[in-house]
Amino acid sequence: MAYSIDLSQKTALITGSNSGIGLGIAWALARAGADVVLNSFTDRDEDHAIAAEIAKETGVTARYIQADMSKGDDCRRFVTDAGRCDILVNNAGIQHVALIPDFPVEKWDAIIAINLSSAFHTTAMALPMMRKAGWGRVLNISSAHGLTASPFKSAYIAAKHGIVGLTKTTALETAKEPITCNAICPGYVLTDIVEKQIPDTMKEYGMSRDEVIKNVMLERQPSKEFATVEQLGGTATFLCSDAAAQITGTTVSVDGGWTAL
């Protein structure tokens, strides 16, 4: 049996999707025919303009809904305001770096809320919609740091490990239904945020751009190449396809070999 990826008649909700990985996944799902609902905590004209651009370029319906993923009520409202959810991509995330004794409590709380608890809240609201529709896909964006660890990133690593655990539980609770749940675990991805870090890192280490990328940023990524948002979009689209109907409760690493070490 040959499989093609046609997500028309599906609605995809993507948290934290006005830039970076989330936006890349939104574009990929839209190009596969899914209507998309974008999200972030801001409510600017440019946020809504991104959705309008996706709609114009792909022909799908695209909307932007403001919701603060640090607040459980907002997470749940995001799903209910969307009105339908066939595909849920939990992507929203923030980062802070510090030693555990110096880690600000408010930063810990914010990272756990946005990177982990938001996925619980959105999933809790989305699953009944998926069950009613008779089909669903939950994609949680974890990280190579959901499978391994580094110093100074305690909250981020705890949250991303938690996302992997939540993924497995969600998959087990939906295993006998046409609903799957998987975690995508990227390594370093070349996003606008990462790109903006390169000049400062060049100054800090006295290195060229290529040296910073290969010896600092991609030190633990054996391929010595960034993953791209387009690759992550392709991975997400595949996991939404019928070919992936029996892939559930697992992690898919897009990390250039990082977690093979």
UniProtKB/TrEMBL annotation:
InterPro entries (alphabetical): 3-OHbutyrate_DH, NAD(P)-bd_dom_sf, SDR, SDR_fam
Instruction: Please provide, alphabetically and separated by semicolons, the GO molecular function terms listed in this UniProt record.
Output: 3-hydroxybutyrate dehydrogenase activity
Record SUPFAM superfamilies: NAD(P)-binding Rossmann-fold domains
A Pfam family per the record: adh_short_C2
Enumerate the NCBIfam families for this protein.
PHB_DH, PRK12429.1
Cited PANTHER family: 3-OXOACYL-(ACYL-CARRIER-PROTEIN) REDUCTASE, 3-OXOACYL-[ACYL-CARRIER-PROTEIN] REDUCTASE FABG
Family in the record? Belongs to the short-chain dehydrogenases/reductases (SDR) family.
Q: What is this protein called?
A: 3-hydroxybutyrate dehydrogenase
The species this protein was found in: Sulfitobacter marinus
